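Re: the 394-residue chain
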Amino acid sequence: MIGRFTILGLILAAQTLANIGPLGIPAIAKLIREDLGLTLTQAGSFLSAYYIGPILMSMPAGTMADHWGIKRTLVLGQIVIAAGLLAVSAAGSYPTLIVLMIVAGFGYGMLNPTSTKAVMAWFPPAQRATVIGLKQVGLPFGGALGAALMPALALAVGWRLAVVTSALVILSTAVASLLIYRDPAGLPPPTTGARTAFRAVLLTRDLWLVAIATLMFAGVQTVFMAFLVLYLTDVAALPLLAAGRYLALAQVAGMAGRIIFGVLSDRTFGGRRRMPLALAGIGSALCSVAIAMIGPNTGALTLALIALVFGFCGIGWNGVQHTLMAELAGARSAGTAVGLGLAVSSLGVTLGPPIFGWCVERVGSYRGPWIGLAGLMLVALAVLATVRERPRMT
């Protein structure tokens, strides 16, 4: 008999392995940049392109999961990511690579809201932020594996075969999801009023406020992931493998943050979701200022501390945001609401790195743009403060 923790393990595996390739690509951006002759802004735009897919697909995919069922959407999302990455490995130019990264992102736009709906279906409200946070560990865990493994693999066999390998791994979890996943007993059938649920989500004030605030959270998070390796190699004069280890360290800290922020939300704050998000935003702002001050003589301990704290705060907030969006909408519209949050926050993911890269090139320094990210986080916290939470149902 399949239990809830088996399903959680399956979902965590799917989330993790789906992110090794896409989130590992920034760690090999230098090799891709040299092969295709790209600019700094172009090399920092790979994740931005990938997250165009979730912008366009997350909300429709959430509605698909609400209306069509979890299993079909879960499997299809993984297949689309894998197919997109296989095509990316054959790209011969920047425009082609970017279009194919967008295609791969459509798959993640299907996977993420659907996996959140699956976890909510299997676990009670008092555990939701914790288990959704654990589920969302898959993103930084996959990113950590990608940052650690993709550079070594790419240096050994070339970046193209490294991307192919990551795609084949995703296909394995698509097959596992097809064979193992099932809905829990007593789950309400998929709703037939998809249009009504979609409209209701779009008209909910607090869902939009959370989505707009976390758009800024997500933009700051992705700038850090997209530019950390480039920044450390260009400014701190670190070799590629050493810089990649700091990105991996940040991803590991993000894994811990997603679990710990979930536990804080469920237990310490009695089901309130805004306070953990506020703590994550404050920590991200402080780290953005700190990273602006590093240079060639910055010690390894300082770099490690910045990576750890930024990873914990800047990546760790995500599961609490999913929980808050789902609870504001209610169980039947949870997929649609999470999809809205992902679509809007993915806009920040897409716009953040190219705007940041343009600012760096425009002013000729990273320092001002890093400090600007801290100011952006203060704006996000002000928006979040206006959200009205619902009391938790036990």
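The longest helix spans residues 205-234.
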